[in-house]
Amino acid sequence: MVVWTDFERATIADIFSKLDYEAVGGATLARCLIVYPWTQRYFANFGNLYNAAAIMGNPMIAKHGTTILHGLDRAVKNMDNIKSTYAELSVLHSEKLHVDPDNFKLLSDCLTIVVASQLGKAFTGDVQAAFQKFLAVVVSSLGKQYH
Amino acid sequence: MLSTREKELIAEIWGRLTPVAEDIGAEALLRMFATEPGSKTYFSHLDISPSSAHLRSHGKKIVLAIAEGAKDISQLAVTLGPLQTLHAYQLRIDPTNFKFFSHCMLVTLAAHMRNDFTPVAHAAMDKYLSAFAAVLAEKFR
């Protein structure tokens, strides 16, 4: 059972309330594909990923990034139940999408960087710790149903 | 593998940050202590509270070493020789901590450079810091 402090709950709610899901989602997924190019293996049908500019301007990537962020929203709204909230998504990623769970950490690191650049100074060490703890639970839950 | 353009970008960014080495270094360390409490065990002999003199001077040392390495990345093994020895035989820091620190440095750069910390800059910086950490750990065994 994950135990959240009041500070952590408030911090997560606050961060997500400030995020433009479309902008942040697209930027995060694009950043992941640029910083960790091997992740492009899962996006063979997404059109032009030839270089950073193409990836950043790719509408399919932008749309999928938004989908991902909205998926994260489910964890934000169910912080005491993330594992069961994500059971189905975990099965999907394992059995249908065949995504190596190590990739979840890569994407979550990119999201941390994007949020840091949005919030600047407000993204203090303690806020970062809370955010990373949240993402770690998400990542672990997404990997739970792999076998 | 760093392209010529990436090496230029990295050298340029660290050149710009050298004047605020203390701020950047201290912040990266603080972020690491907040997110990876185990990393604090290496600093039990220092005062690592925010804005402590120890923290700032230590942060400055680290950033200046990273900036120095950025001036000629192909010579990292030469530039880092003495630091390799220090880390391997005296400090003996578990190398996973280099990863934690590098990540916190990237977050620090993002928080400071905001939109200027583009995906291309991020990719180049991540590659550089990984290479730096790998060279630093070379004498460990």
From TrEMBL, chain A:
Gene3D superfamilies: Globins. Keywords: Heme, Iron, Metal-binding, Oxygen transport, Transport. GO terms for molecular function: haptoglobin binding; heme binding; metal ion binding; organic acid binding; oxygen binding; oxygen carrier activity; peroxidase activity. GO terms for biological process: hydrogen peroxide catabolic process. The keyword Transport applies. The keyword Iron applies. GO terms for cellular component: blood microparticle; haptoglobin-hemoglobin complex; hemoglobin complex. Residues 3-147 form the Globin domain. InterPro entries: Globin (IPR000971), Globin-like_sf (IPR009050), Globin/Proto (IPR012292), Hemoglobin_b (IPR002337), Hemoglobin_oxygen_transport (IPR050056). Belongs to the globin family. This is Globin domain-containing protein.
From TrEMBL, chain B:
InterPro entries: Globin, Globin-like_sf, Globin/Proto, Hemoglobin_a-typ, Hemoglobin_oxygen_transport. GO terms for biological process: hydrogen peroxide catabolic process. Signal peptide: none annotated. Residues 1-141 form the Globin domain. Keywords: Heme, Iron, Metal-binding, Oxygen transport, Transport. It holds the Pfam family Globin. One of its GO terms (cellular component) is haptoglobin-hemoglobin complex. One of its GO terms (molecular function) is organic acid binding. SUPFAM superfamilies: Globin-like (SSF46458). Belongs to the globin family. This is Globin domain-containing protein.
